[in-house]
Amino acid sequence: MVDAGDAETEAATTDDAETDADEERTDGGERSQTHTIRLELVDKPGELLSALHPIAENGGNLLSIFHERGNLTPRGHIPVEVDVECPPERFETIVDALRAEGVNVIQAGAERYGEELTLLLVGDIVDTDLSDTLQRIESSTDAALADLSLSAPEGRGGASSARLRLATRTGRSDEVFEHVRQVADEKDLNVVEPLVEVAE
């Protein structure tokens, strides 16, 4: 037999548990989730700390940081992988805040970049400023540079080629390709149609 005092205690405990569960949920009824963000940082003091500010300021809970100092990205920067816990609706805000601070986001979450597009640029790539070409592609599209391979057998001033592997949002590959073609046309570069990786 349960007396009234025990029943009240059990009801209060149940209410507290429901309140705790509600506190873990977002306004839309979803719980906080873990997201992975891959960044590309310049190797100089304070860069990592600056990149973490937008995460904290926009409600992200930092879980871990993997600083790959021994490896470099195709542009000679340091890749950093950050695990963040936050409600799903805050994640895009965090990513947008990082970009607004000038942080290059290579990949954000599992769904943000669900496809890859491989292209070949041919022409006077070096003298037309490859860094500017890559920056314009990334800043104006939903794409991030995942890999770059440059071949310049004749050296500076000669014909060269660059193989770009771009991570893109699912369903946006055609749009990204058209933008790459526009940038290439302005710089008198040729673009080889998207390359398909063939398994051996």
Structural class: alpha+beta
Strand order of the largest sheet: 2-3-1-4
The name of the CATH topology of the largest domain is: Alpha-Beta Plaits
The largest sheet, given as strand count, sense and whether it forms a barrel, is:
4 strands, antiparallel
Strand content: 25-35%
Mean pLDDT: 75
Broad CATH class of the largest domain: Alpha Beta
Task: Provide structural commentary.
The protein has 200 residues and is an alpha+beta fold. The protein folds into two domains: 33-111, Alpha-Beta Plaits (2-Layer Sandwich), CATH 3.30.70.260; 115-195, ACT domain (Alpha-Beta Plaits). Helix content is 36%, strand content 32%. The chain is built from six helices and eight strands. The strands form two sheets. Strands 2-3-1-4 form a four-stranded antiparallel β-sheet. It has a four-stranded antiparallel β-sheet with strand order 6-7-5-8, with helices on one face. The relative contact order is 0.14.
Blueprint of the fold:
Blueprint: H1 4-23, E1 33-41, H2 47-57, E2 61-67, E3 78-86, H3 88-100, E4 104-108, H4 109-112, E5 115-123, H5 130-139, E6 143-151, E7 160-168, H6 173-186, E8 190-195
Antiparallel strand pairs: 1-3, 1-4, 2-3, 5-7, 5-8, 6-7
Helix pairs in contact: 2-3
